[in-house]
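wait is this the right file?? whatever heres the structure
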């Protein structure tokens, strides 16, 4: 069998065994971060600080001589030599012809339109019936 040598510390721990078990129990109950996760978070914070300082240094090196490219138009208009009616339907198939006519064409008045004050006595009697 293969033996692995493990270095054991001979120094007395600052925490008692009951304290260690209490921390583990509280961690399991509350779902708080473990010691490994706390160490990992600390390392992530250190990496983020190092990256921020690197970016700052790179920006300070390049910003003095950097000239951005002038903005250019992103919209390109393409003209096609085709009539607009052929590009899209002039009359959709699901629309009836009635909606294409003006209201005057749909509802033509019968005869001349005469106001109440313009009617004579016989016309008023006719309208009452």
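ok assuming it is, sequence goes like this
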């Amino acid at each position: 069998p293969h033996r692995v040598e493990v270095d054991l510390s001979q120094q007395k721990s600052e925490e008692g065994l009951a304290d260690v078990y209490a921390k583990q129990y509280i961690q399991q109950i509350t779902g708080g971060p473990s010691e490994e996760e706390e160490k990992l978070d600390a390392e992530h914070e250190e990496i983020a600080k190092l990256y921020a300082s690197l970016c700052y240094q790179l920006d300070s090196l390049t910003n003095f001589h950097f000239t951005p490219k002038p903005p250019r138009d992103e919209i390109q208009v393409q003209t096609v030599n085709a009539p607009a009616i052929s590009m899209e339907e002039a009359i959709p198939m699901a629309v009836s012809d009635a909606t294409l006519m003006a209201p005057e064409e749909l509802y033509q008045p019968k005869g001349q339109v005469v106001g109440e004050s313009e009617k004579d006595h016989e016309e008023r009697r006719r309208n009452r019936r």
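The mean pLDDT is 78. so i think its the right one actually
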